[in-house]
Amino acid sequence: MKTINVGLIGCGFMGRTHSNAHRKVNNFFDLEHRPVLKAICDNNGEKAKAFAAQWGYESVETDWQRLLARKDIDLVDICLPNNLHLEVAVAAAKAGKTILCEKPLARDGKEGEQMVRAVEKAGVPNLVSYNYRRIPAVALAKKLIDEGRLGRIFHYRAKFLQDWTISKDLPQGGDALWRLDVKVAGSGVTGDLLAHCLDTAVWLNGGVAEVSAMTETFVKERKHQLTGKVEKVGIDDACAFLARFKNGSLATFESTRYARGHKALYTFEINGEHASIFWDLHDSHRLQYFEHRDPGYLRGWRSVHVTDGDHPYMGNWWVPGLTIGYEHSFVHQLADFFEGIAKGQPAGPTFRDALETQYVCDAVLKSAKSGQWEKVKAAK
Amino acid sequence: MKTINVGLIGCGFMGRTHSNAHRKVNNFFDLEHRPVLKAICDNNGEKAKAFAAQWGYESVETDWQRLLARKDIDLVDICLPNNLHLEVAVAAAKAGKTILCEKPLARDGKEGEQMVRAVEKAGVPNLVSYNYRRIPAVALAKKLIDEGRLGRIFHYRAKFLQDWTISKDLPQGGDALWRLDVKVAGSGVTGDLLAHCLDTAVWLNGGVAEVSAMTETFVKERKHQLTGKVEKVGIDDACAFLARFKNGSLATFESTRYARGHKALYTFEINGEHASIFWDLHDSHRLQYFEHRDPGYLRGWRSVHVTDGDHPYMGNWWVPGLTIGYEHSFVHQLADFFEGIAKGQPAGPTFRDALETQYVCDAVLKSAKSGQWEKVKAAK
Amino acid sequence: MKTINVGLIGCGFMGRTHSNAHRKVNNFFDLEHRPVLKAICDNNGEKAKAFAAQWGYESVETDWQRLLARKDIDLVDICLPNNLHLEVAVAAAKAGKTILCEKPLARDGKEGEQMVRAVEKAGVPNLVSYNYRRIPAVALAKKLIDEGRLGRIFHYRAKFLQDWTISKDLPQGGDALWRLDVKVAGSGVTGDLLAHCLDTAVWLNGGVAEVSAMTETFVKERKHQLTGKVEKVGIDDACAFLARFKNGSLATFESTRYARGHKALYTFEINGEHASIFWDLHDSHRLQYFEHRDPGYLRGWRSVHVTDGDHPYMGNWWVPGLTIGYEHSFVHQLADFFEGIAKGQPAGPTFRDALETQYVCDAVLKSAKSGQWEKVKAAK
Amino acid sequence: MKTINVGLIGCGFMGRTHSNAHRKVNNFFDLEHRPVLKAICDNNGEKAKAFAAQWGYESVETDWQRLLARKDIDLVDICLPNNLHLEVAVAAAKAGKTILCEKPLARDGKEGEQMVRAVEKAGVPNLVSYNYRRIPAVALAKKLIDEGRLGRIFHYRAKFLQDWTISKDLPQGGDALWRLDVKVAGSGVTGDLLAHCLDTAVWLNGGVAEVSAMTETFVKERKHQLTGKVEKVGIDDACAFLARFKNGSLATFESTRYARGHKALYTFEINGEHASIFWDLHDSHRLQYFEHRDPGYLRGWRSVHVTDGDHPYMGNWWVPGLTIGYEHSFVHQLADFFEGIAKGQPAGPTFRDALETQYVCDAVLKSAKSGQWEKVKAAK
Question: What does the alpha-carbon distance between residue A51 and residue D30 come to, in Å, rounded to a whole number?
Fold first, then answer.
């Protein structure tokens, strides 16, 4: 088995999900490659050391440029805030590293374009961590669509609702709350949550042609963690948009952090001529499926408990009826990434795939300002 | 159209459901017969008068024997407490009346046997109001079973859970609370709720061979409404039993009025070799159906919204997606009863059908006392 | 008890729901008034006669102007296609009749304005039949909002999804399919379905300030039932829009007749600072409620089975746990209308209330054409 | 941090769940101890080698007695079929090893008693792997009960339904199908599935006093994998029983492998005076909770999404809304076991706790044969 030496940058929430995936992937998937936790990198040295101890990294770096310079690192795993993706990814590409980058690709399309150019010029394997594609029920949805079970698509609707920023006392910025700081995050729910919805949507239903959007910032000012001062909030707390896909279907998308009662309600529904599909992250092990071809008096939404051996990825886990959870989508992502490398067929979403999502986000934010329908730039 | 002159006895909850059915049935069903609300009878004259005004009865009686003596009455509708079923039904049969009788048939099998003999000797049309058979989703379950979709049956399970008698301060007996008075009701949840479960079960799955039961009376004494004294409670507050059906399937049945959170949770589930069915009165317009013959990765419980024109009874109501409710089961019952009379083919459950349910109840109560498995007497 | 002589115009689906309500209302509600089914009117005389026989109307008219001229008619119940509302309602107002008019008020705001002027000038009681306000769970939602349980509202989202016009072979126009004929209906899903969503939304959340919409006609041509020719389809098959309410909350609305698997999926959700509410017509007897004030580890969406005596309207029906259905919303509407007349306090939605909904529909259709955000005209 | 050297015996399904737990526990829980995967043991050497490679065991043994003799092994993890628990556990106790044993404790109470004596005599830490106690939603149920939220308990009901042995062509016995071989398993669903239900029930609701049971073997003969001959099936395919708890509450329990449509439907419900609880393994991240103290018109079953930081165990995983799955219950079990060792307070269920479950199983199987109610032997 070939080893892949991993250097992971960033000890936050995503650093944990990726480390866990690296540690587990070979226990459950038969692969040609095996990741080795070579180095963890964080500019906070104490944090990095503790993280290394907890996850079993062999060494610690506090400067990502030193990490990239190391010859014993094959894969750079970027688990940094959005504003750092561009610089690190471009440098990693130049250093010839395989790159796994947290989503969204970047703060906007312009940054994304530079990143795409860098990895394509360097010819390095690259993947953006839109992990929800690899939830088994979502992968099953893809399979059903590819089998042609839905027929012509009329409607797509997705939402991603949370409720964790309603309190006015919540500060913005700093380690745990950089997602509320527009300079770091680039945008609010658009880049954080709608980007997930869009990655899935484009994968399942093809490109988005045009959008009409609105955004809102409900709490206008928050104390900034780093400056200690009350500052204007620059991110979008909520964003909703109408869209027309290139295949003629209509869509609504919505995201917010002000939907009381929803922690991470990412749902999508697709209505086709012959069948429909619905999925909900809160019950991520189920796919709802309606087939019009069933006898009239027996038609109904089927709640498919996606835990059987013939469901995507599930043959590698336990036995029918026993669920897996959020973290496993990262394991599947790694398995697919490595399998793609082994076969020389890149697994998606590549940086270029992710640029398409970035362009839709750009059009959404532009439309929210212009009050007009905006066309989406083509990524391919 | 032929008229059927109705004399209804009892102005309680069931008097209302039956009166409503009589008033509505011809608005929605094309029938040869039309009921006319000829007379309402209650020993409380004031109550009867008010009821007549509210529902449009042409006359009032306070003595049920006088009602039976009237030649202008064709159908006697017995909406009385259980202890009065025997005497009134036997007299009505002798008077040659068509009889609709509230469930359960009687307080026990011995009373029931006399009633069966009376109607069969008189040759009068007779029906016992086990109304849940006529919920469209339940009728659809019957259709699926009759089509052979389930194959060999392995399991049947039913429960009927309520929570309205938990308070110790609730009295027993009298007008509204006769169901808690063992002399009037004959038993507690067994005759009131399990009888419903059993009527459906025998209809869907055939006869019950033997049972092992337990009962409990959680609140041992309650004030009696009529005597004003604290008296021993004679009814079963809760009853659960194991059963073996004649077809070899196993069953569990349970009922209680001490299940906090459930108002009228009547559910049944049938597991067959090829398919399973689940129904719940709280969402009575849905039938859950699982078909093993679906492709493996697409198997799931279908939630059939039983509101289409090709669902039982539903073509007579509104349009797809729009629900009906509890009261409509009584309308369907009347439509079927009248159609049976028109065709000369009795609709079930007849008194004899209902005797079978009574015998199971008898065996259940006997087993709860004996601590033994008890065989069920054959009704046919 | 005072009688109100009813003259109902139109023997279609709505003629049935209204007739049923007139027949039932006094059986279940204690009111000062009692409707009498005096006359049914339809330009098809045979149909009217059969309808009269089925529902118990005393007389038949084939010319609505003759009906309005009758002095023994107190209330005119307009169950006609949308294009006839204006003329009949204005004439009925001039004749001094109490008016109950099916929704939407009219084909557009201009027609609606004339109708409002007519009833207000005549001073006659008037109500538009947006019946879903009177589903008990929806009325409970209103009660919770009025109690201040939600706090500041951030989001409103509603959709009304159907799937009955997907087949290209379905014709347009004529008796049963006038909803597909733009000349008769005025619009497609906007006036038919979104109007329902908007009536509820404005009632629960106040006025809509501005909208950005898109519409689509998936099947461009259909055979017309009346001409027998294939003609262009003028209605919107689907419509989605973004909205900003006057209270600062954001909204998404969507409706279509191309959402496979949904017969009449009208849902709405409101997210407030302290609590959220969700409702679904397919399970109309349940209200989903989330309260943030519950202890953290016990927070969850409560599925309230709206069948208790202390739930709106439900004390008038059966006992806890037993459901009512679609038709009962019309009974409640009539009870409220009559109670309003008795008290001299008009029940809503009056014609003027309904004009507000009409203005939003106008803005939606305008925006779909202009590709711009459009302001909503003020109705009050 | 102290290391605990693990020797795990058995490379089947449970060997995998335990190995995964050993590898993960320190990544997510702060503990004094850290397990080291010292040795894997299986009498099939090839299998053991492959397993060692996949999971990172340092050495391989093919004879469990040799493993027990090793001084570098601290903890013996028994993942063997039921018939081997007794011999291995007693020997491990004698060797002074800490013992983690898969459930059920043994094939019957007699075997269990010897095991209890052995570990208590040796004074070694011991735990039986009834992992479902450590599903966060189940642990939350325990917390609510301990807080007294339910009040007096009236009812307990549990079932564990599967459908994987319906086919007559499925053989019995051998590596993967030893659960169907009565000599190896001891019993069928009673020891395999009902034992899970009983462990939870006794933990949540106290001891069981007496039971009345029935069992069935639907497929009477199956080919045996080892002998190649068609042999009588000795296990119970299905088992249902009535029970009375020592606290006076009534219960129904049911398990089967013939419930089409259910893969692993383990559900339990508890009805108390003030509140009720429901849980379902198929949606294991949710706890349904009903509180009668809520205002009457707002009462409803709350669907608690057990993924918050203040829910049991969940603070150690991801962020609110993101689910974990089946495997994590084993991680929690290990964390609790190690914490108990560190504190000197044994975590349950100990061998003695598990003996109580075993005694109920014995009484159930005895009752199914005798047709009588049977008392449950006391374990403490």
Answer: 12
